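User: Show me a protein chain along with its predicted structure.
Assistant: Here is one chain, sequence first, then structure tokens.
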Amino acid sequence: MAFKLETVIPWGRSLDEYVRMFDLQPDELRLTLLDCAGGPASFNAEMTCQGYNVISCDPIYQFSATDIKRRIQEVYPRVIDGVKANRDNYVWQTIGTPEELGEIRLSAMEEFIDDLSIGIEQGRYIKAELPGLPFTTRQFSLAVCSHFLFSYSDLLSQAFHLLSIQELCRVANEVRIFPLVDISGDVSPHLSPVISELNAQGYNVEIKQVAYEFQQGGNQMLQIRKF
């Protein structure tokens, strides 16, 4: 089935948020990085401006900047209304209000939109999706995946999660996934069985606390390595 833009809810995060979500240290920013399911985040654009090396992959990159911007404008009011209706599900500390959240997200997505065309030309934005990625084995030092795996546990099966993580571990020396709760704020039902299976297959898997929590309970990442 073809991937359709009208099924996407674009929602982009910034470099600062990535650093805190994935506990990225200054020396780790210098690594060869993959942002998988990156969507309209400004992470790639901001990192590139600072001279770092990031490739982002997502099926949304098959669409033009104009079409993605139009989709953002369509869904933005609905997303903010949803946040307002469920504001008790969020931690209002670093971000104080739904309106401030909207400004931060729009700023990140606008930076992404401005960068998309040149980023595609430079090979920094790749149309690709899990569980099959068009990258060579160990092409990256670190792969990060934000708000996709475990977030949509009601739509994506346990088998999909396992295959996706195995594929990320194929293309990167280390994988970090954030958060470990689904969109309702519950710990993903896939988390424990996926960790058990990865451990049985020889992967080194750790749950780590991070200095980021906006969604209630969303303050841990999964760190996976295979030696």
